Amino acid sequence: MKYVLVSGGVISGIGKGIIASSTGLLLKTMGLKVTSIKIDPYLNVDAGTMAPTEHGECFVLDDGGEVDLDLGNYERYLNITLTRESSITTGKIYQHVIERERRGDYLGKTVQVVPHITNGIQDWIERVARQPVDDTNEEPDACIIELGGTVGDIESAPFIEAMRQLRRRAGRDNFIQIHVSLVPIVEGEQKTKPTQQAIREVQSRGLSPDLIACRCLEPLIEATTNKIAMFCQVEPTQVIGVHNVDSTYHVPMLLEKQGLIVQLREMFRLDHLTLAPALVAKGQQIWHDWKTLTSSQSRRMHLDEVTIALVGKYTNLHDSYLSVIKSLEHSAMACNRKLNLVWIDASNLEKATMESSAESYHKAWHDLCTADGVLVPGGFGHRGTEGMIAAANWARTKPKPYLGICLGMQLAVIEYARNVCGLKEAGSVELDERTPDPVVIFMPEIDKATMGGNMRLGLRATNFQEKTEWSKLRKLYHGEPSIHERHRHRYEVNPAYIDRLSGLNFIGKDETGERMEIIELKDHPFFVGVQFHPEYLSRVLKPSPPYLGFVAASAGVLEQVISKTHAN
């Protein structure tokens, strides 16, 4: 097993996840089978209870694991399916070790950070690294390990020590460390001192980075590269500049141009491995497709634009909707369009309860009315929901393409109930427990007392109903009778109200036929709501069907896209 550790210094949030994903992609293009693991040093067992504005979106896996958003990057770049065990947190590791201690597995020994926590981390990594993650059903050849936070943080110390020991355990030519650091520009000069200090910090912990990835606003000049190499005890070829680019999809190309494939091949001695010809050919095809994608991105300034209004609750931190953004990007590229994403705080659409200025109100409505399509994503809580309902009403009545995800679907149902079916006080028990017409209710099987991991989570089946062949969304799913998508919700459309919502087509239901999964209006350019989160399964080279249809309708090319879908 080959391991690549991606760590960070100076500051957090400098792109370790994209560099880790890009490195994994380059290994995959060489014919290796690649998996990934993310280490988060926080005490939470998983990301499920953290607010999106605190740590970005919570990404959901097939098995229902609620994990860090970087695992979404791994799945999108590597086209693999990970499990909840691919996410390691301090809380998860300590919980595992304490459970073993309570069972008496340590035979009365004093349980300590070293060796019990550090051994627990290494054992976990080795076990998960060998689990199949793609359709080959074979053990991976390489594992990318991303260590969250920055080296030097108190909470990272046990993981750094575990990585030091794992390097010895893995053996020579089987472990590479890429340390990501910041090279700031001060008064026009690229400063290397923060990187020098970061490398000293890593070395003081017993690790010595093999490659230094330098994040900078601009490409590194030769003098900067040489200075970092000299003071950090590496060769200039081991210093890789990762400057800001127009799209994160350019990063693998940027790394490849600076010789990362050559470095990985030499350090891992891959020329001495026998790789399956079929996987090598598949890797070459992946790389060809990726470069074609990158080339189309480079020409996007000359493409027609499609403007999407995202009406949300957490618009101050765009990472709260990272998978949504990526899904829109994938779909825009597939439609040969340049994405113009307009962010609208849903609260600004609420005139009666408006907390912001009149200027914000009018700007929000101007942005909504001038958009080509309206997207209302998932979320929790009351704030901004009346603004989202207003956005759904505008899209339905104008008509403009609309996509509602999870909460966005539920609110579209409430809007329809109020304004078409005469249920003027229709609402959700999440927003008002005393609503006289509870069109959206708490799912009966969910325990209200527990928060963590207590939702309808993971990959679930949705069955298209009879006589729905007209559905635009079903056509985008190749006319399949049943689909599987990932879920994350506690509330659902009330089955008792379905007969009263005449004209609103519930074209998809769960395997029991009782839970509403998809709504679609028949005589509308594109008005779709889904209870699941299709963004979690969108891939760079295979966009999510609901997002693809929505963007295509917004761009005026839906019929062409549907025709192409059926042709394939």
From TrEMBL:
List the PANTHER family hit by this protein, alphabetically.
CTP SYNTHASE, CTP SYNTHASE-RELATED
- Please provide the Gene Ontology terms (biological process) for this protein: 'de novo' CTP biosynthetic process; pyrimidine nucleobase biosynthetic process
Q: Which Gene3D superfamilies match?
A: 3.40.50.880, P-loop containing nucleotide triphosphate hydrolases
Supply the gene name: URA7
- Which species is this UniProt entry from? Knufia peltigerae
Enzyme Commission designation: 6.3.4.2
Q: Which family does it belong to?
A: Belongs to the CTP synthase family.
Name its pathway: Pyrimidine metabolism; CTP biosynthesis via de novo pathway; CTP from UDP: step 2/2
Matching NCBIfam families = PRK05380.1, PyrG
CDD domains on file:
CTPS_N, GATase1_CTP_Synthase
Enzyme class (EC, first level):
ligase
Record-annotated CTP synthase N-terminal domain positions = 2-269
Taken from the UniProt entry, a GO cellular component term is: cytoophidium
Q: What is this protein called?
A: CTP synthase
What is known about what this protein does? Answer: Catalyzes the ATP-dependent amination of UTP to CTP with either L-glutamine or ammonia as the source of nitrogen.
